[in-house]
Every structure is written in structure tokens, then in C-alpha cells.
């Protein structure tokens, strides 16, 4: 099973293991680490800083460049506190110009040790459901040209290809009926 859980400093050990499994931040899409000063440090204090950063994004018009958003950690299992964290999902509540062109409503990533187990597909479906709960009717999801695994995940999740812009493939997923 796969669930989305809110970032929580109490899960710092699972978070640290996940960050270390990525082996660097280049594949941590949806994590939001770029809003920290430097890369996330896999310690209790580093996790606390990370969680504080994710909580700060809930309000609108953060700095004129970012939009209100919700961060989730993807957990394997039923979301119990001892379940492994397997990835990140970031849900943007609205789209600014850059997000419309390249970033989309949802960004996500699954740690290398947990890939090819269906977590990305299930997390994307849960993210679309959360977007529907916010009143978003169509969810824009993008992936890099050449990221065939992500493209397959998006298409399997109902994504309809629109076009390619600046090296990104853009897909729309209808959110109607996704609320449960």
C-alpha cells in the first residue's frame, strides 16, 4: 500500500534514510529542498528545518514567485509512524507562469530502493485526489523529455499529452471524480 503523509520531524530517521538513498538532491523532485539554504542534512535538525520549510508554503503569495502548496511524504504501508518513507510529492494549489510552462501542479519522486513497486502510480493518484479536493478540475503534470518511467506513470494515471515545452512533456489529468 502507498499513502501520502504530512512531513513530520518525528519521522526524521525514515526521512534521513530516504534522503541518503537518493544519494543527492538531483532526483528528489517534489521534495522542495531548493527552498532550503544548501542541501538537506540527514539529521534530526536537518529534518526539522525541512519540515519548517514545507509548512511555510501553505499560505498564498509567498514571495511573488512561489504559490501556495502542500508537501507530502510518500509512505509505504498504511502511514503508521514506523512505515518507511519512499518518496516526495508536492502539490501546487495554483499555477504561475513557470509552473504552467514547465512545473505543473504535482511533482513527485520515489527513492531508488523503492522504485518499480507501484508507489509512484499510487502516489500520483492520491495527489490528483488531493488536487480535486482543492477544487482543481484538471491537474498539470510534467516530466523531462527522456524520463520514460515518469511518462508511463503519468499516462497510466490518466494523463493526456498536450505538448513539449523547454524540454518538458506536459500532461493533463482530469481530477473530476477523483475525490473519495
TrEMBL record:
Gene3D superfamilies: 3.40.630.30. Residues 82-180 form the N-acetyltransferase domain. Pfam families: Acetyltransf_1 (PF00583). This is GNAT family N-acetyltransferase. It comes from Nocardioides humi. The lineage of its organism: Bacteria, Bacillati, Actinomycetota, Actinomycetes, Propionibacteriales.
Amino acid at each position: 500500500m502507498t499513502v501520502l503523509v504530512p512531513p513530520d520531524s518525528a519521522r526524521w530517521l525514515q526521512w534521513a534514510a530516504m534522503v541518503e538513498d537518493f544519494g543527492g538532491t538531483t532526483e528528489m523532485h517534489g521534495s522542495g529542498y531548493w527552498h532550503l539554504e544548501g542541501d538537506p542534512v540527514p539529521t534530526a535538525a536537518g529534518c526539522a528545518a525541512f519540515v519548517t520549510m514545507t509548512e511555510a508554503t501553505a499560505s498564498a503569495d509567498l514571495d511573488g514567485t512561489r504559490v501556495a502548496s502542500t508537501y507530502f511524504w510518500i509512505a509505504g504501508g498504511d502511514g503508521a509512524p514506523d512505515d518507511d518513507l519512499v518518496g516526495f510529492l508536492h502539490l501546487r494549489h495554483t499555477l504561475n507562469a513557470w509552473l504552467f510552462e514547465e512545473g505543473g501542479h504535482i511533482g513527485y519522486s520515489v527513492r531508488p530502493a523503492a522504485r518499480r513497486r507501484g508507489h509512484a502510480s499510487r502516489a500520483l493518484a492520491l495527489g490528483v485526489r488531493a488536487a480535486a479536493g482543492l477544487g482543481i478540475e484538471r491537474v498539470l503534470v510534467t516530466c523531462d523529455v527522456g524520463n520514460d518511467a515518469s511518462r508511463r506513470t503519468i499516462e497510466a494515471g490518466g494523463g493526456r499529452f498536450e505538448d513539449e515545452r523547454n524540454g518538458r512533456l506536459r500532461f493533463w489529468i482530469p481530477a473530476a471524480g477523483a475525490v473519495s
